[in-house]
Amino acid sequence: MSIRTWINIAINSLVLMVIVVLTVVFYHQTAETIQDRILLQLNSIKQLKGIQIREYLEEEWLTLKAESAQSIDSIPDYIPLSALPATGAYDLSEYSPTGKLLIGMVKYDGDQKQVKLIDDQQIQHILLERTGMGETGETYLVGDDLRLRSRSRFFPDQSPFSIGFDKPRVRRGLSGESGQGIGLDYREVEVYTVYEPIELESLRLLILSEIDVSEAHRPLIDLRYRLISIALVILLIAALIAHYLTSVLTQPLTDIREHLQSMSIGQYDRSIRPVAHPLEIHEMYIALIELQTALSGAVRFSTAIGDMHLDEEYTPNSSFDLLGESLINMRDQLAEYQRLDQLRAQSTKRLLIDRLEQERRRLSRELHDGVGPLLTSLKLYVQNHIKDPVHQSEMRSRLDETISEIRRMSYALLPPSIQDFGIGATLSSYIDGINRTSDIEVHFEDLTHKSNSQIDITLAVNIYRIVQELINNTLKYAQATSIHCTLSELDDFVSLYYIDDGRGFDIVATRTGAGLTNIRERVDIFNGTIQIESKKGQTLFEIEIPLSYE
Amino acid sequence: MNSIHIVIADDHELFLSGLVELLKKDPLIEIDHTVTDGQALLSHLQEQDAPDIILLDLTMPHVGGLEVLDIVSKQYPFIKCIILSMHDAGHYISACAQKGAYSYLLKNADEEELIHTIYTVSEGKKYFSPAITEKMVNSMAEDQITPQSLSEKQREVLKLIAEGYTTKEIAAQLYISTRTVETHRATIIKKLNVKNTAELIKVAAKSGLV
């Protein structure tokens, strides 16, 4: 089940439960209170009216007692005398022609008897005073024959006597008990009722104050409707709040889930917009962004490593960042591998060039020290043994040419002077040769140390080849008229400055030219740097090679 | 005229025998001994009478010709050395001349030139052919600059610094790289024991360096 459903069910059922309990308790409390109030009010009304009636009757009785007896004629003939057997008060309603209350009071004084008939007017007046009785409240009297004695509010045209009222509480009341409660009245309608007997001499009446339950309960019904509508409103609000809460909670959760899913399929560049509230969700977003940053940082780093950008830096996110550590390790391993590879390539190249130079030196020496002496010996032989002067002279000049050629070849391969006199002197005589054999004007300045030079033979040969190549290029392509070349030996590096006034060349396009490549390679294997600037009328090479090139 | 006593040092047997044969034809030249390396030559000189002239090859095993020349010039100054070499580079020639050689001949020198040289040298005169002389002079002209060249270059750099040129301009004028100029500047500053360029110029002007 989703969080949304859970929260909705939880909040709504909780609210519903609280409302039901509160409503029921409140309703019942209110109902009880209303009942108590009603009964209290009915009681006080009954009490008041009971007292008034009792006082009235007692006053009448006392008046009668004080008066002297009168003639019997004053008794209407519809009342039998037997109804008034002795001094006292009697309920004579059954004889009343109107069926209304009729009380007869009689005082016997010997044969004289004093009779007083009390009609319902005064009593009815008391009873009909309906203050605080609402629409259905009434106070009425019942006689011991279980018939009404006062006029019914509901049946004003019927004679009270004709309305019977036989209920247990009436019997109980007439037997002298008073009480209260809910019961059916003479109309068979449910009413709140309080009752109390009124006794005077032998007269016994029951006074009842009653009000319809339906009227008494009308505020309760109003209350019920109000409570239900309030409950509904509260439920509605609760539902809205629950909906809001769930969306506040589940919306970010869904969002975060989508972000996590896209990260799990390797998409790290989706922008995350964090919600500001609530705090925990906000913090979750911040954590998510941190995760994304960390992951995409690692991804960027590994991409850089993949592209062999090994100088890329990466800071591990923490001491637990195993991925970062591994990537850094990988980068370092690769860099080391690359370094070793370059070193190997460089040493291979250097070895190749070393071999080449060794071979050249060997050849040069063979020519110079092997073939040379043979030829000079031959020349001596010719001088010793060829007697014909013409023939001898011809042979000598041929031999001289051959020896010169051998010497030239030997020098071209590798000047022996490089070993004996160093690179400066060797270049000087090489450039002398160039000046002698070509139209170009080469100015060479030798600024190497004459004693204790730190340039060893390998480096010297290398520099010699570079200068050879540079001059060759100038002679071949540049159409230059002059070259300035300076070789400076400094404390920790050798600097070769070479400039010609030729037509220049396109550095980018000529990058792969064999001559330039050779120069670059030779500079490279000695860890040197080369800088080339070329324009029409000026081509400049600045080459620097460290003296501790190993 | 007394005969000229000669010792020949050359590691090449064939050449050696050819040379001996050639020189024998001359009545005045007497070949005392031949050796094929520098060590043997030095031992011979210690044990036997000194010759008038040594014909000396430069490229020999054990002890090379230049070294032998050095020793002979110092220990036997009365012996005159004639260098017979395959090398025709100026450095070899000037180095030999500086070390006291009386002459420098290429191995393919003609018979006439060889004999002429031996005669000239035997009279106590030095002899260098025009071609050899030219090469030697060229080489020595270069060499003359060399001993002080660095400080001279530094002086030039200093002069241009004082005149207010930038490093790049100095580099272009002197045909050296900018880094070389900077290194020179640093060296000068260190040598003159100053703190910065401004102070450098002051000190340089005061001491008449520029």
Short note summarizing the structure:
The complex is a heterodimer of chains A (550) and B (210). Chain A is of the alpha+beta class and 550 residues long.
Characterization of this structure:
The complex is a heterodimer of chains A (550) and B (210). Chain A contains 11 helices and 12 strands. Chain A has 4 domains: 3-75 and 84-220; 268-314, no CATH class; 316-414; 418-550, 2-Layer Sandwich (Heat Shock Protein 90). Chain A is rod-shaped, with a radius of gyration of 69 Å. In chain A, α1 (3-66) runs antiparallel to α5 (218-264) and α6 packs parallel to α7 (322-385). Chain A has helices spanning 3-66, 121-128, 168-174, 213-216, 218-264, 279-306, 322-385, 389-413, 417-437, 457-478, 514-525, and strands at 88-91, 102-109, 112-119, 138-143, 179-184, 190-200, 203-212, 441-447, 482-489, 493-500, 529-535, 538-546. The mean pLDDT of chain A is 86. Chain B is an alpha/beta fold and 210 residues long. Chain B folds into 2 domains: 4-128, Response regulator (Rossmann fold, 3-Layer(aba) Sandwich), CATH 3.40.50; 148-205, Arc Repressor Mutant, subunit A, CATH 1.10.10.10. Helix content of chain B is 56%, strand content 13%. A 5-stranded parallel beta sheet of chain B has the order 2-1-3-4-5, sandwiched between helices. Chain B is elongated, with a radius of gyration of 25 Å. The relative contact order of chain B is 0.09. The interface between A and B is large, with 51 and 44 residues.
